[in-house]
Structures are given as C-alpha cells and as structure tokens.
Amino acid sequence: MTTRQPPRFYGVTTYQDPLGRYSFRFPTDWLQFDLEGRDGIRVAPRSDDPETWFTAWVVPLEEPAVAEDLETLRAGVADGLARLAECKVESESEIVLGNLIRFERVFTFRDGEEVRKRKFWILYVDKWLIMLTWQGSSEEEFEYWLPMANYAFATFNIPEALWFATDRELFARRE
C-alpha cells in the first residue's frame, strides 16, 4: 500500500477581486478559471479533477443585509441545501458581527453517481452577498486538500470600507 504524500505549498498567490470587495490567498501552483455567469474566480489543485475546487464570487443585493435578517437568511440557506440530493450537513455555524452575517456549512451530497463534500461561507456584507466554497470531488479529495482550502478561508479579507458599512451605529446614521 502506498501512502499519498500530503499536499505542499510551493508558493502563495493573492487573488484580489477587481472591484476591491475581497481578497484571499491560495497555492501558487493551483489553476485559475473564470466563473462563467458569476462575478468571481475558481481555483483548482489539479486539471485532471475538475470537481475539486475553491470558488469565490459576489452578487449585489437589492437592499443591505442587517442582523435582523438572520432568521430569514438562515431559512434560505436551509432551503438551498435541501435542494441537493441526499444532503447531509456535518457542521453548521453562524456569526453576526454588527450587520455582517456569515453562514458556514460543511456537508455531503449526491451528484449523479458521486458523493461530493463541500464547505461554504455565505457572507452578507452590506449590499453584497459573497460566497466562498470548497468542494472535493469525493470525501477523500475534500479531506486531502482541506488544509490548503482552509488557508484560502483563513486569509479571506474584506476591505475596511466594507467593515465600516456593516457597523450598526454607522448604518443607523445612514437611514
């Protein structure tokens, strides 16, 4: 039995959203792809495994999200997960900082004949929904590359201007 060596960093690249709404870091040797139909990027560790990837994308909201929207947004997250075949949520958490709302879920689901595993952050940041997703083509691939994907999550950053936009005291003054 051969043991697969753990993944290694050979360098780090920073992705900066062209409009300055977020940034994150990822391994230099990962491949970069545009997200067709989305305002964002997909990075992947290997070209021969198109179902293992990390994505980041943004959608403008019609109205700024506020902490009081938590229950409604939570229900929307649950509805979305319920649409995935055989979805099993392994962990879930929510964080509310001022008016910044972040949902984190780790789950498996059936995609045709395969069982895939994902971790996502859905962030509501003022008038933006920012989505970060890590997916493994299988549970094994998810776990193998997870340290590198977690680095991308850990280095995710939003600019100071968006942090200020989620400040509840400043938001109250805008109204």
Radius of gyration: 17 Å
Order of helices and strands: EEEEEHEEEEHHH
Poorly predicted segments: none
**Main sheet overview:** 7 strands, antiparallel
Q: What fold name goes in the CATH topology slot? A: Protein Transport Mog1p, Chain A
**Which term fits the overall shape?**
globular
Instruction: List the strand order in the largest sheet.
Output: 3-4-5-9-8-7-6
In percent terms, what proportion of residues is strand? 35-45%
**Assembly context of the chains:** single chain
- Kindly report the average pLDDT value: 93
The structural class is alpha+beta
CATH class type: Alpha Beta
- Give helix % range: 10-25%
Taking the alpha carbons of the first and last residues, their distance comes to: 64 Å
How many strand segments?
9
Concise overview:
With 175 residues, the chain is α+β, with helices and mostly antiparallel strands. It has a single domain, classed as Protein Transport Mog1p, Chain A (3-Layer(aba) Sandwich).
